[in-house]
Write a structure and sequence with these properties.
The protein is 40% helix and 18% strand. Strand 13 and strand 14 form a beta hairpin. Helix 6 runs antiparallel to helix 8. It is globular.
Length: 523
C-alpha cells in the first residue's frame, strides 16, 4: 500500500514522462548472413546490393532476404507487400530482428538459454490479405532484419519500403562532438557510448532496449553520469529518482529495478550494492542539475537505504552475507563480493555525508562519519593483506579487481597506496578479473581517482576499444575479449548488445581529470 507521500512522488514522476523524438530509418544494404570463423561470434554479412534491387523482385517461394539498416534502431517496423495474381492462400512470413549478425544467422529453435525465448526478436505472420502496409506489433531494438518465407502459392508478391520508426528521448544533435584534437579511437568510443545511451533513453533510462527494458538503479547511476555531460536531460533523471522513491516497499527499501507498464510497479528485486548507491545517485543529480530541492525532498529515502544496508554490517564493522540479498558487483560467477560490498557501503556513506552538508544537515553527518570510520577500520584490519599489499575477500581471502576498485573508490587507503593495490592486482594472474562493462567502469574510475590516468586510458582503449574493433554499434552488456560468446544466460543470442551500464567511456572523456588527460574536456 502506497503512502500519501509515495503517491505524490509517483504523480511527479508521471508528470516528467518525456515526449519521444521520432525519425524514420531506412535500410542501407541488402545482405546475406554467412558463417565465418573470423567474424564476431562466427558470422559475417555479405553485401548483395541496395535494398531497392530487392524491392523490384517478385517472389513465389523460398524467400530469404536480410537487410542491414547501417545503424542501430529502436522502434517499430513497417513495410509494404504488393501482390500479383489471385491470393489463394495466406502469405506466411517469418521475420527475425537482430542486434548482431549471429542473431539473424542462427536458428532460434536451437536456443537453450535461461531467459525466456520470447525476448528473442522474431515474428511469424500469416497474412490473408497481404496487399497492404504491415506494421509489426512490438517495439524492437536491432540493426539487422531478415524475412523468410517457405510456401508454394498461386501468386507472386514483393516486399518493399521497409522502414523503422525509431524513438528516443535523447536529442543527439544537441550534443557537441569531441574536438578534432582528440585521437580518433577515443572519438569512436565517445560516439558509440552516446549511441548506447541514446538508445536506452526512452521514457525511463532502460537497461537495454532489446531485453528487460527496465529501470535498474545500478545502470541508471552510470547512465545519468554520462547524461549530465552530454544530453543534459535532467528531467528524465528526476523522473527515475521519483519512481524509485515512490515504489519503495513497506520497510522503505527501494527496488533494484522497476517496471513502467501497465503502470509503474516494484520489480521485487533487491541488490545490496544498488541499494547503497541511491545516495550517491541523488547527490550527483543535484550537483549536475542544481536542483537541491529534489535532493532535500528525497534525502530521507537516501538515508533509509543506508540504514537498511547497515543491518548487514557486523559488530566489528565488516559486511557479512547473510543470504538476504542479491549481491551483484559483476557477472563473474567465481567472485567473492564481501570486500567489494564493504567498499560500496563506505563510498556511499561518504557521498551521503557530502549530500548532507550541501543540504545544511550537518548534524546528521556525525552518525554517518562514525559508520565510515568503523567500516574503514574493519576493512584495514580484516581485509588488507599487508604482505601482498592488496585487499582480500571472504574466507578464502580471494584477490580480485572488484575488491581493489571499490575499496580504492571508498578511500580506505590514501590514493598512492590504493594505486599500489590496483597495480598489484593487475600483476596477479590468479586474481579474479571483471567480465562485464559495469565493473570495468569502476576499475577505470578507481584508476583515475588514484592518479593512474595512463592506466585508465589504456584500459578504456583495451576493453571498450576491443568491442569497437569487433564492429560494435553500441557497447554490450557483457564482454570477455577471450570469449566473445560468453553469456550469463547460457546463450549469446539473448545477451543485450546495447546496454546502459556500458556507455561510460563518454563520462571519462567529457568530465573531470580524465577529460583533461585526453585533452577533450567539454564545457
Amino acid at each position: 500500500m502506497m503512502t500519501t507521500q509515495q503517491k505524490l512522488w509517483l504523480e511527479k514522476a508521471e508528470a516528467l514522462k518525456p515526449t519521444l523524438f521520432r525519425r524514420t530509418v531506412k535500410p542501407r544494404h541488402w545482405v546475406r548472413p554467412e558463417r565465418d570463423a573470423q567474424g564476431f561470434q562466427g558470422w559475417r554479412l555479405a553485401t548483395l546490393g541496395p535494398p531497392e534491387e530487392f524491392y523490384a523482385r517478385y517472389h513465389r517461394r523460398d524467400l530469404d532476404a536480410t537487410f542491414d539498416f547501417g545503424e542501430y534502431c529502436v522502434g517499430q517496423v513497417r513495410f509494404e507487400i504488393e501482390v500479383a495474381g489471385t491470393i489463394d492462400s495466406p502469405l506466411r512470413l517469418q521475420i527475425k530482428l537482430g542486434e548482431t549478425p549471429a542473431e539473424v544467422g542462427e536458428d532460434f529453435n536451437q536456443y537453450q538459454g535461461t531467459l525466456s525465448r520470447s525476448w528473442l526478436q522474431e515474428e511469424i505472420l500469416n497474412l490473408e490479405r497481404p496487399g497492404a502496409v504491415i506494421r509489426l506489433p512490438r517495439r524492437y531494438a536491432f540493426r539487422y532484419l531478415r524475412f523468410h518465407a517457405e510456401y508454394d502459392a498461386g501468386y507472386q508478391f514483393r516486399i518493399k519500403n521497409v522502414v523503422c520508426d525509431a524513438v528516443t528521448s535523447a536529442d543527439l544533435a544537441a550534443v557537441s562532438p569531441l574536438p578534432a584534437s582528440c585521437p580518433e579511437p577515443l572519438r569512436d568510443l565517445d560516439r558509440i557510448s552516446l549511441n548506447t545511451l541514446k538508445n536506452c533513453m526512452q521514457t525511463v533510462f532502460e537497461d537495454g532496449p532489446k531485453r528487460d527494458r527496465r529501470l535498474w538503479l545500478g545502470d541508471f547511476r552510470l547512465q545519468a553520469l554520462v547524461n549530465y555531460h552530454s544530453f543534459k536531460n535532467y528531467g528524465l533523471a528526476k523522473r527515475c529518482l521519483y519512481l524509485f522513491a515512490a515504489l519503495a516497499d513497506e520497510h522503505g527499501r527501494i527496488p533494484a529495478c522497476l517496471y513502467e507498464r501497465p503502470q509503474p510497479h516494484n520489480g521485487n528485486s533487491h541488490i545490496y550494492d544498488y541499494t547503497a548507491l541511491f545516495a550517491p545517485t541523488l547527490l550527483e543529480y543535484a550537483q549536475a542539475s542544481g536542483d537541491w530541492d529534489t535532493a532535500a525532498e528525497l534525502w530521507p529515502v537516501a538515508v533509509r537505504q543506508l540504514d537498511i544496508v547497515q543491518e548487514d554490517i557486523d559488530e566489528t564493522g565488516l559486511f557479512q552475507d547473510r543470504g538476504k540479498w542479491w549481491l551483484f558487483i559483476d557477472w563473474s560467477s567465481g567472485l567473492d563480493r564481501q570486500a567489494a560490498e564493504q567498499g560500496v557501503v563506505i563510498f556511499s556513506l561518504k557521498k551521503a555525508c557530502e549530500l548532507a552538508r550541501a543540504l545544511g544537515r550537518e548534524p546528521e553527518c556525525a552518525v554517518l562519519e562514525r559508520r565510515i570510520a568503523h567500516l574503514s577500520r574493519a576493512a584495514m584490519e580484516q581485509l588488507f593483506d599487508a604482505g601482498r599489499q592488496v585487499f582480500v575477500s571472504g574466507k578464502e581471502r580471494q584477490v580480485s579487481w572488484a575488491s581493489q576498485a571499490w575499496l580504492a573508490l571508498a578511500g580506505v587507503l590514501p590514493p598512492d597506496a590504493a594505486a599500489g593495490t590496483l597495480r598489484a592486482v593487475a600483476a596477479t594472474p590468479a586474481a579474479v578479473k571483471p567480465v562485464g562493462p559495469y565493473l570495468y567502469h569502476y576499475v577505470v574510475e578507481a584508476m583515475f581517482a588514484c592518479g593512474m590516468a595512463a592506466e585508465g586510458r589504456a584500459l578504456l582503449l583495451d576493453y571498450w576499444g576491443a568491442m569497437a574493433k569487433l564492429g560494435a554499434d553500441n557497447f554490450w552488456e557483457v564482454f570477455d575479449p577471450q570469449d566473445p560468446s560468453l553469456s550469463p544466460y547460457g546463450s549469446h543470442l539473448i545477451n543485450s548488445y546495447c546496454h546502459a551500464w556500458s556507455c561510460t567511456p563518454s563520462y571519462f572523456l567529457r568530465s573531470g581529470p580524465a577529460a583533461h588527460g585526453f585533452g577533450a574536456r567539454q564545457s
